[in-house]
Structures are given as structure tokens and as C-alpha cells.
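Question: what's this shape?

___
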Amino acid sequence: MQTPLPTKRPSLVRRLGLAAGLSLVTLLGARAQTALSGAYTINNAQATAGTNFASFTDAAAALNTNGVSGPVTITVSGGPYTEQFSLNQLAGSSAANRVTINGGGRTIQFGSNTSAQRAVVTLNGADYVTINNLLVDATVGGTSTATYGWGVQLLNNSDNNVLSNCTVTATTAAASTSTNFAGIVSNASTTSLTGTGTTASQNLTLQNNAVVGGYYGIAVLGSGSLTAPTPGVQITGNTVRDCYDAGLYISYLSGAQVIGNDVSRPNRTGAGSFYGINMTVGTSGATVAKNRFHQAFPAGSTTTSGSYGIYLFTLAAATSTTPNIIANNLIYDMSGVQAYGIFNGSSDNCKYYYNTIDINDQANTGTGGGFGFYQTTGLNVEFRNNIVRMSRTGTGLNYAILLSSIVPSFVSNNNDLVGSGSTYRTGYYQTTPYATLADWMMANGGSFDQSSLSVDPQFVSVSTGNLRPTAVALNGTAAPVAAVADDFTGATRSTTAPDLGAYEFSPPANTPGVILRSIDSPAPPVTTGPRTVTVTILNNGNVPLTTVQLAYVFNNAAAVTQTLTPAGGLAVGATQSFSFTTPVTLVSGRNGLTVTASAPNGSTAVSSGLSKTFYTPMVGTYTINKQAAGSATNFIGFAEAATTLNSAGIAGSVRLNVLNGPYTEQFSLVQVSGVSATDTIVVDGGAGKQRLSYGGTSGQPAAVLLNGTDYLTLQNLTIDLASSPQYGIGVSLVGQAVNNRIKNCAILAPSTATLTTANAGIAVSGSVTVTASGGDASGLRIENDSISGGAYGISLTGISTTSRSTNVRVTGTVVRNFFNYGIYLANHSGARIIGNNIHRENRVSTSTFWGIYVAGCVGLAIERNRIHDPNTASGSALPASGIYFTSTSGAAGTENDVVNNLIYNFFSYGTTYGISNSASSFARYYHNTIVMDSPSNAQTANIGFYQTGAATGIDFLNNLVVVTQPAAQGRYALNFDTPASSITSNYNDLYVGPVANGFTCRYGNTNYATLTDWRAANSAAYDQNSVAATPAFINAASLVPTSPALDGAGTATTLTRVPRDFANTLRTSPPDLGAYEFNVVLNDVELASIDAPTSPLTPGNNPVTVTVRNLGSTTLTSLVLSYTLNGGTPVTQSFTGLSLAFAATQQFTFTQGLTLSFGTYTLAVTASLPSGLTDPTPANNTRSVTLQQLTPNNDEPCGALSLTAGLATTNANSTFTNLASIITPACSPAVSPQDVWFTWTPTTASAPLYLSGAPAGMVRVFTATTCTTGFNQVFCQASGTANTAVGNVTVTGLTPRRLHYVAVSGYASGDATGAFSIGLTPLANRPLVASTALTVFPNPSTAGASVTLRLEKALGTGTVTFINVLGQVVRQQPLANAAEQAVITQGLPAGLYTLRVQAGSQTLTHKLQLLP
């Protein structure tokens, strides 16, 4: 007989398996060479011979070696069998030649210590195998101590297999928390429980099995591909108990059928969170129906984990044609720290129909909440015809339905949402809870559950799992869904009036009932004016309906009630239309109508209600005011206003004034009908710039979403996403959203996020979820806004270079502290980027800096922008570009212009480009000022203007380029990397200074050091009329030059394109170089720096030295310098006989220096009268510096303080007194004690001194001839221990009525200095009398920071007062009864303050300097 060929090529694993099987030839005799067909047995009571195999191993060897030639049935008897059973690809197996193993309830068991062979039963490429009624035990009767224990595994394309009626046991031990243990596994890995891949198994049927234990009970993993998920999986009728994590786990499956399973965890202790079913990435077209998910934890147990009945995280796998349908499931007895009935996490196209969810946990005492249905994000999700009942104790809130973010295309309706207890809320949307169903119906502009109920379903018996309702109000109140034809039991659903929840049911006999089927009138579209209210009712009871009470409430007015008595009675299941006599009058905007039907046949049956919201076109002025009730002219939030605009449109101009923020929600608009250039929408936050806060998500990153919205103005709003961790766009214009305006807004994009996917202040895109996808925002105006944070400050992306956006303006806007791009501009025609301020000095975590990034644009104007400080805080070694063009070629007549821009403070440790042009033709760079003058050394190169990539028509004229920052790889005013390019460069100032590695230009691979060298390059093609002069800016804060070499040094005549300068001053002809026109000053002196003294000051005289620069065009021959201290009397000195050329500097020292006592001072120095003439530019004449004298006044004996009854003082910052007659202390080892001095005239030969504080560790007493000579030590006493107070001492050896000098220091030379007290009377008996009893640190401090005040001892309660230099009280705060407390300086400007502490009769003061 010829052995059939394999139906598919075996993998390497299978080929190795076939080869290994040949070794059994000698064991099996001639049969080993013959394909199997027919009936066989496995019986360990008999030897392997004939049609019997003594073990599963022998049977596997025969099948793997010989294959099959017909249907094979193997019946198991005997046992138990302690071994593994592994089938590889079986030659000859097919739909007709199936291998069936009838287990007969017999046991195969094994515990594995081999990572790649974890399962008791493995189908490793085997197809068309059925295993029925086999007991598979991976615990070996609970005795296994093995590392691994999977019951059954299918892998390596094991297709078309069936596992039915088996019992599969994995470990349930509390300590077994590993994925090493599982029940049934179908995947693509021998070692990873969740391994996916192309070798996943198709057409698997798992039917009527009992699975106990394991990390997952059943795990079926597919291909790992979203485009080719694994088909044909059926998981039906299984009972899964006591898993550690998920009962059922599936991913990357297409069309999976998960039906009729029972998943619970009644006995597993120590387990993690419970997932009845976890449907994860890549699952589409699945049906999950008629399952029970219940008892998440054993009765009476406690846990720190949560529970999820059904958990979906399928992302975008399901589509509108392959939705995941979850229907007719029972979810109950969910407990834990948090309990979720259904969790929809970022899962699109999921349909939840006819499920019954009962979360009833009366033992919970925690703070975690309960959720019937919970959704994060997901497109096109439906939640219909479900019953959700919530009753959960504890302090956490419980919600029937919670939607954590904006939910596009989400539908929730025809549900029963009911709960009990003080913590129950019907719904939650974004950030707002809604207590009642009526409240929930108002959420998001009336978007949810308008035809839903809130009625106790009156289940038959939850304790036995019978969740069939009996409440008549639920009978026939569902909306038919064609996809669900029957109920949990298989009973056929009504096609016209099905019941809510998983069961079709009939109410008790003789029960009258009525429900509202529909509100038929009014019907959209609607306009203002009177309308008749018409409804349709259904008799859902089981007796004829003879009477019913109908009522409606319109726009929160009083109810209108009317009784209906159907002639002859309305038959069971019949419907009837009814019109109210009293009409409603629709008003402009939103209109709410709620209709109820109650009291059928006079009974007390619960009423049925429907709500509908109608929108008429808006016109006029409205408010968004959450502190006022919703009305025809007021919306309680942005979402409600958006719903009205989206639904109703406008009939004339509309203004929305925002009041009483902040608001925490999204403002999402679509195309609003009725808008035009004359009929616009304005949303105005007013003078207070009302705040709209939002936490962006990957699916909905935008706080304000304009999705196809036109003619909208957002003004005076604060849009805050600063705390969003990664995703967040302030204003997102998506698709074609044209003629919009964003004006005077403060937009706070994510402040620390680093993802560029959906992270910007303002973004124009073709996608809701992507920042820089092509969209069309033609006519957009971004005016005078402030934008902070984001990966992009502003991202404006047109559709393509063949479909560019037009007429976009960005003007007067501050863009700061972005991660990557300041302004990103792509695919635009005629855009204007004018007068903006772009910088990044405070962002620590950064990427490459692009001030203005341009691609694919024509006719562009970038004018009068400031671009500066790319990496002040970060120290980044990544590149930085001020203005960057890439593949953005204009054409003759539609050139891209870069004009009058300031690029400065442009430092980065990486390569830095002022302006960069990459393969961008017809670009004109005129009158820009580029200054790269940081003293810090860059690691690579600094380039003022860089051109790379072949391009033509590039003009670089009348620019000012300064590149003096040191750079390891060179610094260049110009770098023309591509010699083939056509560039006109002339009439520029190209200054690189004398520092090493400075080159005027690099052309190709050649460096040209000087301007003279550069002029000779490329046949004298460039910069024949340019200069290389220091611009001599007026001062460090100004980029207005003063150099005569730049005055009128531009093109022969003013460029037509640049009639005015950065400051809007008319240009002269010929014009000045750079962004500013300026006048050459004959006599101008700049105070360039204060060189000395520096803080802290030294004791004694401190010379005052300054550097001045001559910015006048004539030689400076004399000047006058003066300085003041704290605004006091000036010290003035004239300096003559000078010969200081233009831009040269010279240092001067005043004859009179500074000798200052302890304290903080402001030194201001002014230069004036250059060459004896008035200085016309005084703005650069004065500089100031804050100085501190930290050395105490009594640091030396000549400054000694007179001892009184008591002094609170300090020896902080004191020095060693090194006088020849002062000997080394005899009472301590100190060689150079840091001492302070006091004078004392005692009246007796011995007297006490009272000291406290560790800095007073030693006291010495001297007589002296003068304060510098004749010192004789008469007394010395020390504490004996470092940093320890000497305490009270009795001084001996005194000469009565003679002046003595007292030195106080620490015990040792290295002791800490600081505050202490000394006096002639006991400390406890005297008040604090000196301001030195109060210390403040740090001092100086930074304005806005917290400082600490420290007292020698607590004074009791009182006040702390800040007094400015004008003597004004600017702040007070309470003084605590403590020796130390924090003092807040938030809101105080920089300056010098007196800090006054008052408590009872005590008053202490201290100076405090606050720096900017």
C-alpha cells in the first residue's frame, strides 16, 4: 500500500519529528511501515501489538511515523497514563481521514520541566484530529511539582481540530501565578502563552469541555496580523473554572464564535484580577453570545484585585463590515476592589446587544467603584437593549455606564439602567457624573439613552443564576436588532418588540402594561414655532389596554397630562398613535421633550418614557455658564453647546460668551450648517480668558476639535492640556476646516510629553489622531495667541503640493517651550508668518529645535519674527535650526521670502543653523539678523546660513550674520554645501570674530577664513560688497547695531520687497544691514560690564572696576563715571586723556572704593558725557549688580560690639583674627578660630557671661592697648567638644573698670558658625533685642520661591511682614509659635525687602533680597 503524501509541506520541527519516529521501527515491527486506518486501542494492560498501543507514546509514534490512509479511531481504556502525547503533521489526514481519540473518561497526566514541551497533549502541526472525552491532568492528581503545566496545546498550523467533552486540569494553587500553567492553549510559540504568528492554528473547535485552573483557562492566539487574522475558531459550551487571570483569552482571530460558555472562579484563592473573557488586539468579526461570566472570587473571600466580566482591547481590528458582536450574555456576581461588567478599552466597531449585567456586591467596604459598562475610547460602538443593575456597597461611586472620553459615533439607547444606594450614579461622561437617568439623558447635549428606562428588572433568582426579568416595563421595550435573532436560551426574539436583556420573557398573568414606542412629532428637521406632540404606544401587558395616562415635559416647563382610552381596548401587542391637544413651541437652539406613559388600566405600573432633543438653527447671543440652569440661551458646558451647533446649525451670526469657568471637557464641532463669511460663530472667554481643561487621549487628543468646521472664532480662552502625559492638542482643525480664527488665546499643550503623534498647541491635519497629516485650513488666522508646550507649537499641514492650503496667517503669537517644532508649515500657498516670538528657554527634555520648519510651500512670507533660546535649559547636543526650508521651492513670482527676522541667543551644544535651506529654490533671504554669540563651546558646528541640496534662485542680501560662539568643528557665517546651486549672496555683514575655527564661508569642502578669501571663491561670485564688521549692538538686550560699517551698506537701492524694517521704520536708500535701520551716533558710550567688586564682598576696601565700550563713530577722548549704592548719593569721577576707537573697550577703576558693613546692596554704575558731549542713547549707559557683605561688622576687634544685657548675634561668615599679639587659644585645639568680637568694661575682678548656641563653643577675654595692638589674654574657656556650646561662664582675671575685648568662636577651627546669644544677664530673663536673632535663608533668594526664617527661640504667635524699599507693607502672614517656618514670596517682584517679625512686645527685622 502506498502511503499518501502530506497535504502541506512539513516545517523543520515536523520533519525532525518524522525522522525521530523512524527509531520506533524495531519496536512496532512491520506495522511501523504501514499507514494507519481503522479502529485501534490504547490499553496499558496489553503490549503494543496488532491494533493495540500500550501507551499514548506508542500511538503517537505510529501516527507520526506512518500517517494514515483512512479514518482512524483510537479508543482509550486502562490508565491512568503518566506521559506526554504529541502529534506532529500526520501524512494522509484530511476531512475524510480524521483521527479520532475517544478517551472514554480515562486520564493522561504529566508535569513538565521542559520549557519547550509544556503540555500534556500537544498537536504540533497535526490536522483533522478529534480528541473526545479525555481527562487531561497537568497536575498529576495534584501532586506535580514541575515547572510547567499546560493541559493541551495546539501550534505549528494544527488546523481543523476538535477538542470536545474533555476535562482539562491545570494548577489552582494560590502560589501558581505564572503563565507556565494553563488549560487549553492554541498559539504560535512553544514557550510564550500569548505568542502569536503565522503558524497559529485555524478552524479549531473547543466544545463542551470542562477546564479547571491555569493562568488562563482557554487561550487562543492567532496570526499576529491585523490584515490576516486567524479564522474558524469556535469556543462553545465549555465550563471554565478557577483560572488565575482570564477564563477565555483570544487575540488576532477573525470571526471567532464564543458561545454558550460558563466562566467562573468559585474556589481559586490568591488570584489576580478576574477576566471572564479578554478579547485583545486583532480580534474582529467575533460573536460572543449566550455566555455566563460570574463569581469572580470565592464567596466570603477578600482581595486587592478587580473583576471584568467582558474585557475588550481590540483597537481598530473590527470594522463596520466585521464588527465584534457581544450579545445575550449574563454577567453577575462581579466583586473585588473594582467591578466591571463590560469594559470597552479603545475598541472600535463593537456592538453590545441584549446583555444582562447585575453587579450586586453587598460585602464591599473599599473605595473602588463599580461599572456596568465602561468605555475609554472606541469608534462606532453601540450599547443597546441591555439591562444594567448596580447595587454595591463601599464608598466608591458606581455607574451603570461610564464614558471616560469623547465617543464619536457612540450609541447608547433602549437600555434599562438602574441602581440603588447613595453611591449609585446612572452615567458619567468625560469628567461629569450624572445621578439619575433624567440627568444622564441631558449629557452631551442629549446624546444618550433617550429611550432607556430605569426600572428594577425583578430577576427570578440571581443566587441560582436565573436572571430572567419579570418587570412588565421591560417587556417589549427593546429595539429590534437583526443581528440577534434569539435569546440566551435560544428562544426567538420578537421582530417588532423584543424584550430587554438576555431573555425574552412574559410578565405574570393579567398584568396590564404600556410602553412608548416612539415620539413621532415633532420630527427633524425643525424650525421655531408651535408643533403637535404625537406618540405611538404599545400594549406590552397581557390584557387589553383600556386606559393610559400620557404626559410630556417640554424645556423643563410644567407637565402637560392627557388620558387616552382606546376604543374597545388596545389588544395585547398592538400599537396606537396619539396626539396631544396642547402643542409645544420650539425655540431657537436646543429643545428638550420627555413623554411618559403610565397607569395602564389604572394600575400603579412603572411608567415608560422617551426623551428627544430637537434643535432649531441658532442665532444671536448665548452663554456657556455652568452655574446657571440650562435654557434656550444658556448651555451648562462646551459639550452641550457643541451638540446644539452640530445638530441645529445657525440661521445668523452666533456669539457664545463663556462665564464662570473652568470647564473640564472637550469642545468638538463638525461642519455647522448655515455658516458663511457674514454668519459666523464666535466663542469668547472674555477678559478673564475662561479656562477649558482637557486630558487628551490617543483617540481624542484635542481639547477643541474643529472637524470640518468653518467660520468659527475662538478668542480670549485658556485651553489647558498641560498635564496630559503624552497626547494633547489645544485646537485641532481636521479635514477641510476653513476661514477660522484663533485670537488672544492662551494654549497650554502637554508640558512634558515627547510623542509627536498627537501633541501640539494648534494643529491642522487630515486626521483626528495625528498631528501632521494633510488637511485644509485655508483662511486660518492665528493672532496674538500664547502657546506653550507640545511637540509642535503650531503644526499647519496642507493636503499636498498639488492641493495647497491658502491664505493662512500666523501673527503676533508667542510660541514657547515646545519639544520639537515651533511652527511647522507644509503644503501652503501665500502663507504669512509675521511678528511671532518663538523660543524654548525653559524646556528641559527636548529634541531637535526647529523654530520655523517649512516644506512644500510657495509664495510664503516669514517676516519680523523673533527666534531665540533653543536650548537654554536643556543643554541639548541635538541640532537647532532657526528657520529651516526643505523641498519648498517657490517659482519666479511666487518666491518664498524670509525678511527682517531676528535669530539670536542661538545656542546649542549640537550643530546650530541660523537659517537652513535644503534643496529649496526661489527663496529670498533679506535683512535678517542672525547672532550666534554664546561664550559656551558647541560640540559640533555653528552656521549662520546653510544651503545644501541643488537649488536655484536663492538670494541672500542685506543680512547681518554674527557667529562668534566657539565650535569644535568650526563656525561659519555661510556654508554653501552644494556648489551646483545658484545663489546670489552680497551686501551682507559676515562677522566671525577672532576666535579659533572661525570661517567666513565654507564652499563645498573648502573653508574660507576671511571675507577677502571668500570674495575670491568661485570666480569672485559672492559677497563682493559685503563687510565683516562687529555690529556693536546698542546693548546686550538690543539687536540694533551702531557700527558705521553697516550704515547704508546694503544694496544700492532699497529692496522693493523690504520697504520697512523690523520696527516698521521706513528703510533708507541704500538701506542698513540687518533687521533694523539705525542712525550712526558720533558720541555714544556703553557701560559694558561691572567687573568688580563681586559678591560676596571682602572686609575692607573693595575697588569698583567697570568696562566701557565706545559705540560712537568718533574716538572717545573722555567720559564721566558715577556709582550709587542703594540709590544714594552718587560717587562721580571723570576720566580724560582717552583714545578709544569705535567698538573698542577699556577698563576703569574708581579712586574711591567700597567699604561696606554686613548687608545687601545694589550697586548702579552709569557712564555719561562721552568726549564731554550728551549721550543720545542713554539706554546702554547704566548697569547694576546686587552685592552682599556677609562678613559680620564685628569680625575684627576694631568693629567690636559693646556687650549689653544681652545680644542675639551670629558669627556666620566670620574669619580668623590674625593679629600678632593675639595668641593661639590655650583652652581648645583651634589654630584659627572663626571669631567675632565684643567690648566689655567689667566692674569686678570676676563676672559671669551668659552664652547659648553651639557656634559659641569658646570665649576668650583680652586686655589691649588699642584695637590692633597689645593684646593680652586673661581668660579662655571652651566647651571641650566640637559644635557644642560653652554655656554660661564666670570670667576671672579681670581688671575692674578697664576696657576688655571678648572673642567668641566655635570650639574647633572647623566648627559650624551661626546664630548665638551672649549677654551680661541670664538669657531667660531678657528680651531679644537685635535683628541678628532672626536669620533668613537662602538670602538672596529667587522671587516666587519659599524662604525659611529661623529664630533663636520661638516667640509665640504673631505676624511676618514684608516691607519694600518705599516703606510700604506689601504682604503679611501669620507667625507660628516655632523657631523656624517657611515664608512664601510668590507674587512679590524682585527687589530688596525688610522682613519684620512681631510677637507680643518683640520686634525683629532682617533684610531679604529677591532676585529675578
Q: What stands out?
A: The chain has seven helices and 117 strands. The longest strand covers residues 68-77. Residues 508-615 form a domain with the Immunoglobulin-like fold (CATH 2.60.40.10). The mean pLDDT is 91.
